[in-house]
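haha ok so turns out i had the wrong file open the whole time. this is the CORRECT one, sorry everyone. sequence first:
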Amino acid sequence: MGEGEVKVTRGPVRSPDDFLIFGSPLIGAEEKREVLDCLDTGWIGSGPKVTQFEKEFAAYQGADHAVGVHSCTAALHLSLLAAGIVPGDEVITTSLTFCATVNSIIHAGGTPVLVDVERHTMNIDPVHVEVSITDRTRAIVPVHFAGRPCNLEALVELAERHDLVLIEDCAHAVETLYRGQHTGTFGDFGCFSFYVTKNLATGEGGMVVTPNEEHARHVKTLSLHGLSADAWKRFGDEGYRHYKASECGFKYNMMDLQAALGIHQLRRLEANWERRRDIWAVYQEEFGRLPLRPPEAPEADTRHAFHLYTVLVDKHRTGLGRDEFLQGMTAENVGVGVHYESIPRHPYYQETFGWRPEQFPVSDEIGQQTVSLPLSAKLSDGDVDDVISAVRRVLGVD
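then structure:
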């Protein structure tokens, strides 16, 4: 047996042709009918279903304005541009996130400034944010990691005191509440993801929410080449409408095909959240007995979106490393994820910004131990039992 390999002494928990896919979304008959309606009517690009989805999503979030876009990456990029970020401006964000958060800052022309996270929440540490603010800082981009809200009281106070733009990365946090208010509505912009593994899935897709009507208009214009009218309005039954390019924009608009899925995903969002909450509770009970570090319980006066269930695999406690654990779970035909290796672990950022993992010790420790286990409303009770059995077998306690 080679170094780092996990020996499987009996058949796996699941057969290879029944591999449990990580993050597989729950798609119902309503979504399918809505997509077929798009095909029947011919509105498959940006059209009336996008407008409907935007209105219903804004109502759910308690937001004044919502603009559908192609991805959360697009949402972040456009929000930074609408906020007026220009080359030379510094934007503070977390060192424990997906690369899209940092890339969006770079694409907007800003300079990303990383700070470490809190060990217990895995969210950006406001203490580190404050000491990183300079006279070049223009914005803060916190990420509500795994669906757990950041310390928004502290972050909003810092943004107001230093006159900074607050752009919330809510890729994991559609249902998240902080003191009774939806995340994404505390700052100047809230950016959401509807990627296939997210709690609200449209395959690809994203949304910007904002209290500022001018910001919403600007994001909308930038999302479609900088044109003055939506494509579906130009070609609608009211007759052709001329348009003008007011600035150099992007091809970031949402399609009706995406919105068709989103409309019904949104309507079953609370029921799906309840199912994931129940699975989370089972995991907490089962994995709290094992030599793993399960996630902390949600903080008082908050609601966790239960987007990711992450455990930390410490070789000193478990007897095997994180990557061995990943390999073992795959051998059991149970899909897992890694959210995330710290940003300074990636070669591009090391070479471009000179960041090193040891500069962000908490993020790096988490990033070298973290494993995300399946957590989806699509999981049956049998699937959940299989995840638990696979974890126990990989750890050698079954």
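The radius of gyration is 22 Å.
again sry for the mixup
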